[in-house]
Amino acid sequence: MAHDYRTALNLYIDGERLTVAGRSVHRVINPATGDTLAELPLATAQDLDRALDTAARGYRLWRARPAHDRSRVLAGASQLLRQRIDQIAAVATMEQGKPLVEAKAEVNMAANLFEFYAAEVHRLYGRVLVRPAGTLSRVMKEPVGPVAAFCPWNFPLGNPARKLGAAIGAGCSIILKPAEEAPGSAIEVLNCLLDAGLPKEVASCVFGVPDQVSRHLLASPIIRKVSFTGSVAVGKHLMKLAADGAKRTTMELGGHGPVLVFDDADVDRALDLLVAHKFRNAGQVCISPTRFHVQEGIYERFVKEFSARAAKLAVGNGLEAQHQMGPMANPRRPDAIEGFVANALKVGARIATGGERGGGTNDNGFFFRPTVLADVPLEARVMNEEPFGPIALMRPFKTFDDAIEQANRLPFGLAAYCFTENGRRALLLGDAIESGMIGINTTVVAGADSPFGGVKDSGHGSEDGPEGLRACMVTKAIHQA
Ligand code: NAD
Questions:
Q1: What is the pLDDT of residues 259-287, one digit of tens each?
Q2: I want to staple 173 with a disulfide (CB 3.0 to 4.6 A). Which of 59, 154, 209, 240 is the partner?
Q3: Are residues 475 and 431 in the same domain?
Q4: Is the pTM here over 0.90, yes or no?
């Protein structure tokens, strides 16, 4: 089946679609082929001021509307996402690289989240305090105000949906800055909301030079909350900018997912789940399993069988159904993974499979082979920095305490995974691991109804679930006599 890049790349401000005319542009590249898909307009300072003014008006308008209206828009957008799934998924695959089946799952993730929030907005209750007769003390939940939201390129549909859904559900307005590398996906999600009746002032969408856009928006007193998904370094930088205006923040930053596989685990099941989870989106996932600590009795078998399965994965253009892993999203990623591999080999790791570029269907694409490194020393750079690529790192451990020490060794704390058939051990693991999300005998650690977020350097605040909606609200106590 042939696919076209069927989306129009514009800025969207106050109901107007602003084109490249008179603006700098960014070329959007298909990572599977290196071809240019389209040119994206970048916002000027005047455009950003206009978006801020629109957000101020949009907030006044939207916060006054009943929960019913917000619910109807979110439910309608959810239905439209499902109706348009084939077209939207093709846009995401062409600009980001992931296989179509994964892009469709991401459309469904966005639709599920809008559906969940459409129901949850009816439950944004406050409470009444027990006070003497003739007095009334109310605790109210109110929308925080206009939100500035910055999204990365790895989940170009799901991430904008998270940020739009929470802000719109809570009664906020929002200025969305999706990743310039995968802009059409975010525009398609926004279009579903607009087509479902979202007033034009409530959400704007801008692109630009990320540092310029975030400095401009965060300097404005109009913005009351910043939501960011991306690297730890950029997250910390934005937190500093937000502090100047005492703006609230939700930060979903990097991870370095530890996996603890005990020798009583169901190894075949663990392999089935973990190989698929590791190479999903070519490993460019913040909750990707990264450091595999495997108990010594099963270590050699685990490395051998994991590597054999990884080597068999069909890598190529994500638009073609036979491919299980696509290219990396941009040329920076294969460069980074190549550097991590070279450094790990220098300090004593061994390659069990992969370890080099290629394996794809087009020499101009940003492909890297599914890679497994075994016996990786702790001092290897990749054991300490988030690799964000198709690379699994394996080390043996002896005891439960060793495994916990390894899991908690790094400053990250986003997602962790454990495989054991011992119920008591599973219970202790859940308590002992410092991580925002833990999967025990499962790799499913997210869902529309479940909080998604990290601890330590991996950030703070949760997205999704009731927590995601409440993160766009503030609390007010009103005492009346
Ligand atoms: P990067 O850190 O420069 O960019 C990450 C994202 O942040 C991009 O979408 C970018 O547009 C945005 N960004 C960068 N600077 C910004 C700024 N000053 N203001 C607002 N937004 C800004 O580099 P990269 O090469 O895209 O990614 C590098 C690393 O980032 C990856 O290796 C990974 O560790 C991490 N990352 C994490 C996630 C995640 O889901 N948590 C997503 C993408 C990247």
A1: 999 999 999 999 999 999 999 999 999 99
A2: 59
A3: no
A4: yes
